[in-house]
From TrEMBL:
Residues that, per the record, bind Fe cation 1: 76, 107, 110, 197
Pfam families membership: FA_desaturase_2
Cofactor(s) the record lists: Fe(2+); Fe cation
Keywords: Coiled coil, Fatty acid biosynthesis, Fatty acid metabolism, Iron, Lipid biosynthesis, Lipid metabolism, Metal-binding, Oxidoreductase
InterPro entries xref list: Fatty_acid_desaturase-2, Ferritin-like_SF, RNR-like
Gene3D superfamilies: Ribonucleotide Reductase, subunit A (1.10.620.20)
GO molecular function, one term: stearoyl-[ACP] desaturase activity
Record bears the keyword Oxidoreductase: yes
Family, similarity comment: Belongs to the fatty acid desaturase type 2 family.
Cofactor binding note of this UniProt entry: Binds 2 iron ions per subunit.
Protein name: Acyl-ACP desaturase
One biological process term in Gene Ontology: fatty acid biosynthetic process
CDD domains in the record: Acyl_ACP_Desat (cd01050)
Length: 331
């Protein structure tokens, strides 16, 4: 059985890796300006300045695109909570602290740009958006929360492993939301944001991989805990379940995407099912991750069946509604 290392020991052991990965990130990243991706000429004053307040007819986005854009924005809005969480677990000293601050600065652009786009284009109700922002930030966030709402002991491994999956999931969600918008400016903006998220994911993924080499059993305990209880950071958003269904049925983020584009690529990169350095309970946890993958596969099939039935119901309702409109116009 491998000896458990303290977070302080792990921080020191991993600091050279973090410095190397931070320097790589700074070479690879491309700075961009949120204002360059906002169609300012589409904007006009609201009622308080003599203009017109928002009306649902002004939105050019579908229900799926609106729901996904707002969900993505509210997720980004909780940045102060995320900063606090990673700062507490990753330290603000040396290369760790430089990364935490750089990551926070880059992430902050996302919320700025998304909100400006939605308000300027009148894609969603700005009053409701502000109310949701305040509610979401008041609720806060902790990645160390399981499905029963209980807190488990958070650690450095919990943080870097959770954020690896979360950043990849966010990248995929932003990219698919851009496509769902069917609007070139939104698509460009969300491509730019998803490129940021991808570089962030690569940093955390590679720090986690180095941690797996240093303390494999300890890292496996965190990996198993994170994946068995995984929730996206937007789960605290009001009416999250309903919105998640809309987003899933719309093909932005569903169980198949979660398994094939988020969970499996990371597990394969870390060679989780090929490594032979897990012992005792950690080895049993690795085997249980194989069971989890099978459970996720079953959930994908169940979701597809439910989605098909839902789409058929919606098609019949739309057909019925269209028939009534034709009948009323003919009479």
């Amino acid at each position: 059985m491998h000896e458990n290392l303290t977070d302080l020991h792990l921080l020191r052991e991993l600091e050279p890796v973090v410095e190397k990965l931070l320097n790589r990130h700074l070479r690879m990243r491309k700075d961009w300006n949120p204002h360059d991706y906002i169609p300012w000429s589409d904007g006009k004053n609201f009622y308080a300045l003599g203009g017109q307040d928002w009306d649902p007819e002004q939105s050019k986005l579908s229900e799926v695109a609106q729901t996904a854009m707002v969900q993505n924005l509210l997720t980004e809005d909780n940045l102060p909570s995320y900063h606090r969480e990673i700062a507490m677990n990753m330290s603000m000293d040396g290369a760790w602290g430089q990364w935490v601050n750089r990551w926070t600065a880059e992430e902050n652009r996302h919320g700025i740009a998304l909100r400006d786009y939605l308000v300027v284009t009148r894609a969603v109700d700005p009053v409701e958006l502000e109310e949701l922002r305040v509610e979401q930030m008041t609720r806060g966030f902790s990645p160390g929360q399981n499905q029963q709402g209980d807190l488990f002991a958070e650690s450095l491994f919990d943080s870097v492993i959770y954020v690896t999956f979360q950043e990849l999931a966010t990248r995929v969600s932003h990219r698919n939301t851009g496509k769902a918008c069917s609007e070139p400016v939104a698509d460009q903006l969300l491509q730019r944001i998803s490129a940021d998220e991808n570089l962030h994911m690569i940093f955390y993924r590679d720090v986690s991989e180095a941690g797996l080499d240093i303390a494999p059993d300890q890292a496996m305990h965190s990996l198993h805990r994170i994946l068995r209880n995984f929730k996206m950071p937007g789960y605290t958003v009001p009416e999250f379940r309903r919105k998640a269904v809309v987003i899933a049925v719309g093909g932005v983020y569903d169980p198949r995407i979660h398994l094939d584009d988020v969970v499996m690529p990371v597990l394969k990169k870390w060679r989780i099912f090929e490594r032979e350095d897990f012992t005792g309970e950690a080895a049993r946890m690795r085997d249980d991750l194989g069971v989890l993958v099978e459970e996720l596969e079953a959930a994908c099939e169940k979701f597809e069946t439910a989605k098909q039935k839902r789409l058929e119901r919606e098609a019949k309702m739309a057909e019925k509604k269209a028939g009534k409109v034709l009948a009323s116009s003919a009479s």
